[in-house]
Amino acid sequence: MFLTGTFSGPMAVGALVVAAALIGVTGTRLARVVDKLADRTGLGEALAGAVLLGAATSLAGLVVSIVGAAQGNASLAVGNSVGGIAVQTAFIVVADLAYRRGNLEHAAASLGNIFNSLLLLILLAVVVLGASAPDVTVLGVSPVTVLLVGAYLYGTALAHRVEQNPMWKPEVTSETRQDVPDPHAAETSLRLLVVQFGLLSIVIVTAGFLVARAGLALVQEVGLSGTVVGTFVTSISTSLPELVTAVAAVRAGALTLAVGGIVGGNAFDLLFIAAADVTYREGSIYSALTSADVFVVGWAMLLVGILGAGLLRRERRGIGFEGFGVLAAYLAGLLVTTQLPGG
């Protein structure tokens, strides 16, 4: 009964509110723990943000996509994944507004974040190719899923190499805030930080199950499409940790962690589709995508491209052209998606 989506409409809305609040509160604490882990382990804020913070804050969304696919709703599974990428990219602008000393993308200059933006564009392109590919599966899994996971793992390894041995570096300006490890990091128990990280991740997963059940109820009981619910409802609910942790990281001065957590986490979010393809039993999940679903993928690519341009351009003041561009594109995408057939 927990995963069958038997909530009534009002119960589903209430469950979303409770789960969102739980995710938000947990996310605040998670940002502090990962910031300490970045210093304690020597990973650095960009890599810790992309891998640890990005993966942990994405766990709730992963659960939603897996459960949605298991129930046969491909649009909900994919819309939840890609819609999360879209809204989380917009969250960077919100974090930028919280950073009053200048432009966040300028201050958090990191080659790793730029590389992860390019990696995300590649992964999104793989999904588009998969939607146009023949409906071929091996043991119920599309070859596109293998390509998606392989590209993510190889890209993440390359991102680490780029950080360790960069061929070029961003110009240091008076507004740049470099990732300098806390000199007292060694005094913090690594075991305690790992335990805290694990417990907080479990809470987020639990909240993800609640969001998944509520999202399925909105599709089945209220009659909303899986694309709309995944793109606008479950993705925003499960993406709250990214917003909370980004703002918390900015206020704590961990600017590279703030941007890296979202950009790197977005790349991890694409793996939701790979996991969903494994649990989707009606063929390749890519072949089940509607035109509205493919539009959402292209929309996310546009948002990530604008952000990547901002990371390279590095305007000094305000939210920059990338901030205005991301917000305008995000709002326009929301409007268009609801008007598309299948949206």
Give a verbal description of the structure.
It is a single chain. The chain is mostly helical. It has one domain (9-339): A middle domain of Talin 1. The protein has 14 helices and no strands. Helix 6 (111-132) runs antiparallel to helix 7 (143-164) and helix 8 (190-222) runs antiparallel to helix 9 (226-238). It is globular and about 50 Å long.
In short, what is this structure?
Helices cover about 75% and strands about 0% of the residues. It has about 350 residues and is an all-alpha fold.
List keywords for this structure.
disordered N terminus; 75% helix; mainly alpha; single chain; 343 residues; A middle domain of Talin 1
Mean pLDDT: 78
Domains (count): 1
- Return the CATH architecture: Up-down Bundle
In the CATH hierarchy, the third-tier topology is known as A middle domain of Talin 1
- CATH hierarchy class name: Mainly Alpha
3D shape = globular
How far apart the termini lie comes to 28 Å
Q: What do we call the CATH homologous superfamily?
A: NCX, central ion-binding region
